[in-house]
Amino acid sequence: MSDFLVVGGGVIGMLTARELAQSGASVTLVERGLCARESTWAGGGIVSPLYPWRYKEPVTQLATWSQSSYIHLSQDLFEETGIDPELRQKGMFMVSVDDEAEALEWAARFRRPMLQVDAEFLYRKEPHLRPGHERSLWMPEVASIRNPRLGQALRRSLELNPRIELIEQAGSAELLLDGEQVVGVRTDKGEFRAGQTVLAAGAWTGELLAPLGLELPVEPVKGQMMLFKAPVGLVNRVVLLGGRYLIPRNDGRVLVGSTLERVGFDKQATEDARDSLYRTAIDILPQLADYPVEHHWAGLRPGSPEGIPFIGAVPGYRGLHVNAGQYRNGLVLAPASTRLMADLLLDRTPIIDPEPYRLSGRLALN
Length: 366
Fold this sequence. Notes:
Number of strands: 18
Oligomer: single chain
Helix content: 25-40%
Strand content: 25-35%
Low-confidence stretches: none
Distance between the termini: 31 Å
Number of helices: 9
């Protein structure tokens, strides 16, 4: 029996297991499919909330801590595993923003680097953008990470750690109870028990809690993305326009995303979304029309009220905890979310105030 059982093998689950194991604990991670193949793989990898001033302060607190930690995390994972997560510290342009005053006030309040720049600055940095933009907001410290590579590196890190047992393709999971104590899960691959159980199953976390009569307000929100096979240098920085974005990779490929669709657990990619994403990409960067679309896919985000995740103990049940509901900011908030979860589990001083993320008062009975 392990000290901790983590249910869910996305970036949140894997980082939680890694953080706990680095403290000296034994950890079992159980994933119903393959690690890092759901929203961790499907997202874009911008290490900042989109339009960060439009989020509540609890999201900003987690994002700020996480952004500074990604430099060390990516370096550590590369050294451990030989897999480069490809952290790009190139900055982000936010073009044609209506609420610039609010953005600049937020940046001053939280001391986040943000500048209002003119067209000359914008086109000097990104000359291939569609002409006609008069100004932009510029966040020079925003990074992006190649999330499939991050997932591969994290999975390999867990494999190499003797304190971690990794169970993939476990199928469905059901919580095991001893009275009001959660003692583990029953899966298609058998039972796994631990002193403490952490649910980090993304959009599926609420389904695990439902048999306990608890309703966690985390719902699947589909996002569709597209990938262009373009040459290196066509675009070098994240560009955000009208709620959608382009993200360049080291090899020149360019991602465009994303849709927001509340259609349950449907992960089907659609032609309507493909057409819409293609138009978005060409509108931001016309020369993308000269290059092929390599891939189009969909994933499910764990949507939560106002994007504030649930991190902490589940009321009414001993030994049960949740780390889920990061919504569009799973990769953005992952290092801070998992460090806070580990602090609570290990009775350490929390890195930030845990109160806004607690489940007490935010759960409903069903």
